[in-house]
Amino acid sequence: MHMASTQTLSHLHTVAQEQLEPCFVYDLDALRTHLNTLMDQDVVTLWYAVKANPLSAIVRTLAECGFRFDVASSGELQQVLAQEVPAQQVLNTGPAKSRRQIKQFIELGVRTFVAESLNQVRWLNEAALEHDVQLKLLLRVQLRWPKGEKNPLGGDSLTPFGLDPQHWHGLYLADYPALQCIGVHIFQWGNMLSADKLLSLWQQMLPPLQALSEKLGFAMQVLDLGGGLGVPYDEHSEPLAWQDVLNALAQIKQQSGVQELWMELGRYAVAECGYYLNPVVEQKENYGEQQLIVSGGINHLLRPAVAGQAFPCRLLRESHAPLQAFNIHGPLCTALDSLGTHNLPLDINEDDWLVFSQTGAYGFTESMPFFLCHPLAAEYVIDNEQLHLLRESASPSSYLR
Ligand SMILES: Cc1ncc(COP(=O)(O)O)c(C=O)c1O
User: Measured over all CA atoms, what is the biggest interatomic distance in the chain, rounded to whole angstroms?
Assistant: First the structure.
């Protein structure tokens, strides 16, 4: 499991002394160091997928490090603009772009869009003509493999993200004078920890994407490969080395002949900077199994229930007691409220706190905080070695009517 620095650990202890309820802590100093490494190259243009963590201080740190921003809703756009990111550095992806939303984005200055349907292309063109602006357009492609052929993606489920090449083939770009089609977007994999596997996937996707650009008669200047770079959630998995990803991307850039590769990173950019601190309520034995009941569960961290993958977990204090497998359960009245099975010291008790790591991505905003009327989690940042409370824990009376 990723280990916090001594300095960060000492801040986590301070938070545990200050707080009674679960809370998130984001280490912006570690985030900055990581992002500077990601930016120190000229192979790929990096955008940040704001859905991973829209916290103001996180967005500002990404902006300071030179990231651009991929937003998927009006709320995300407003949050990014409120951090003084220029609208020209925003890209809009997402399957649910209503006419109203498209207009609003254009009015707020966004000029780069990933179209996920023929209607979106039409609405983008109409709104651009109405506002007398030109937009840059990428077509989002969804590929499937014929039955019986080995599918490089593993599964073959249909999603609402993008459109199959057959439907895109029916697009006549000359009908949309306000749109300049600069490339394609494809993203159909998740949490990948192997650069070789990514390379092989991307290579298999190139021919149908190139065929599409030829058929529609636009030059593929940009290839946007979405996100999906993984982080390890268990001690057996190795982190994905950035240099290996860059080598794979350089190969794709050369093979595809595109001028620019883009990626919109979520998890790989921010997961590691986040910690979720969670007080233990009690330990009990049930039918021979050790159970730990904790204050916060999927009300604050939904991902284990939807992705079937727990966040790594350790005890905050040091203990030399033997390790034991504990099933960890949150406070909700559903068996879905499980934060996984973890090896933890046997002497764990109701005065202890657990620390879940990799929670900088898909944590606070990917949760179900209102169920059973628990407090909302507080959010802290560590910035220039100082601890700051950005959001107080909010009591249920603040959101119940
Ligand atoms: C269009 C798009 N780009 C990028 C991402 C970020 O993915 P990840 O967090 O795996 O990097 C997502 C996540 O859902 C997405 O929908």
Answer: 71
